[in-house]
Amino acid sequence: MSDHISLLKARYCSSILKMASRHSDVEATHLCNSLATERATGGTSPPVTNAEEAALEAIYALVIRLGHSNFRSSPIEVSHAAQAIDQWVAVAQ
């Protein structure tokens, strides 16, 4: 059951990151900051736990980068976060 909740969170994070890419830098930064408050889901299987933690770390790194620049000037961090979230979705399915 917890793996399923984690999957829902992963899909949510993916949707928010995609939505951020279609908005202004201020809105994108706000959306990404909201993802940085997510905490790992308890009671998940070890592979899901690892994938979720990696994705949340990548999101946090993106937010840190956004504190020094803007969304569109952070393509490497955005890409890394998106890939980590995609991996999280794949593992949690």
Topology diagram in text:
Blueprint: H1 2-20, H2 25-35, H3 46-66, H4 75-92
Helix pairs in contact: 1-2, 1-4, 2-3, 3-4
The count of strands amounts to 0
Tell me about the largest β-sheet.
none
Mean pLDDT level? 92
Low-confidence stretches: none
Total count of helical runs of at least 4 residues:
4
Indicate the overall shape.
elongated
- By secondary-structure content and strand pairing, the structural class works out as mainly alpha
Helix content: over 70%
Alpha carbon gap, first and last residue: 12 Å
Count of spatially separate domains = 1
Classify the beta-strand content into a percent band.
under 5%
Q: Please trace the helix and strand order, writing H or E for each element.
A: HHHH
Give me the Rg, rounded.
13 Å
What does this structure look like?
The chain is mainly alpha-helical. It contains 4 helices and no strands. It has one domain. The chain is 74% helix and 0% strand. The longest helix is centred in the middle third of the chain and has 21 residues.
Structural key phrases:
single chain; 93 residues; mainly alpha; 4 helices; 74% helix
What's the gist of this structure?
The protein has 93 residues and is mainly alpha-helical.
